[in-house]
Design the sequence.
């Protein structure tokens, strides 16, 4: 599988709520992502909410062979745009079945828990994902926003094939989770992969490497992630066709060992 996917979240309206002003543009971006080689589209029932999954289905169904549609459940959005976790088994079952309908699928290739709910035992939440998998509604189970300990507990209940945590050049707090994924050969999908923060200042290593490759800071950030680990599968998102082309081109950037050390 190509390791540079597409995160569809940014195709929703402001605050990831509702429909975008230009609905057709969102569909064009999704179709172009697949044309450029992305074979994993990451979405969630919380994006919109529901809007993003409907966009994915409208743009890409019937899905090309080999295209993985990954969605998430376990978060509820309200009018305030807050992200409220709900890991109750009954909620996850209803959320999964609704995602199946919106995405026009009989089985979801990768269904990810959007994040553990501190009010629900993780074993209860993951146990329901295991049952959905046994019933054929989910092919693979993934996790998002977890610690190494939570990954271990979940993996004891059901095979976990992916973890989606925040990770980038500028934010390496999930380094231990990435290393655990490497040991278990679990795909690691870093979200907010383009973050560079103060690293992008003129004269700093990121800026020097970008100039050497005639690339943007974001392209080098993505290239670094692809070099950082063989299990890293970044899912950069955008609502811009130009930015999409730029992101996907990062896969062809080869960083030297000295550049990797500097970064």
Sequence:
């Amino acid at each position: 599988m190509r390791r540079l996917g597409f995160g569809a979240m940014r195709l929703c309206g402001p605050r990831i709520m509702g429909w975008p002003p230009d609905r057709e543009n969102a569909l064009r971006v999704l179709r172009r992502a697949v044309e450029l080689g992305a074979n994993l589209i990451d979405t969630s029932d919380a994006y919109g909410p529901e809007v993003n999954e409907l966009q994915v289905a409208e743009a890409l169904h019937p899905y090309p062979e080999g295209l993985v549609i990954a969605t998430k459940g376990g978060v509820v959005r309200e009018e305030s745009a807050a992200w409220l976790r709900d890991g109750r088994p009954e909620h996850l079952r209803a959320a999964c079945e609704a995602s199946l309908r919106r995405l026009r699928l009989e089985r979801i290739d990768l269904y990810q828990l959007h994040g553990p709910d501190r009010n629900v035992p993780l074993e209860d939440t993951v146990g329901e994902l295991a049952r959905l998998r046994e019933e054929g509604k989910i092919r693979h189970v993934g996790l998002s926003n977890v610690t190494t300990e939570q990954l271990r507990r979940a993996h004891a209940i059901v095979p976990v094939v992916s973890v989606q945590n925040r990770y980038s050049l500028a934010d390496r707090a999930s380094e231990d989770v990435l290393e655990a994924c490497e040991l278990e050969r679990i795909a690691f999908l870093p979200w907010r992969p383009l973050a560079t923060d103060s690293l992008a200042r003129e004269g700093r290593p990121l800026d020097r490497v970008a100039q050497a490759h005639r690339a943007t800071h974001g392209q080098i950030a993505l290239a670094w992630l692809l070099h950082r680990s063989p299990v890293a599968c970044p899912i950069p998102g955008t609502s811009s066709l130009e930015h999409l082309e730029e992101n996907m081109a990062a896969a062809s950037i080869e960083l030297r060992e000295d550049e990797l050390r500097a970064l």
The domain at 6-193+230-240 is CATH 3.20.20.100 (TIM Barrel). The two ends are 26 Å apart (CA to CA). Residues 89-103 form the longest helix (15 residues). The CA atoms of residues 31 and 148 lie 35 Å apart.
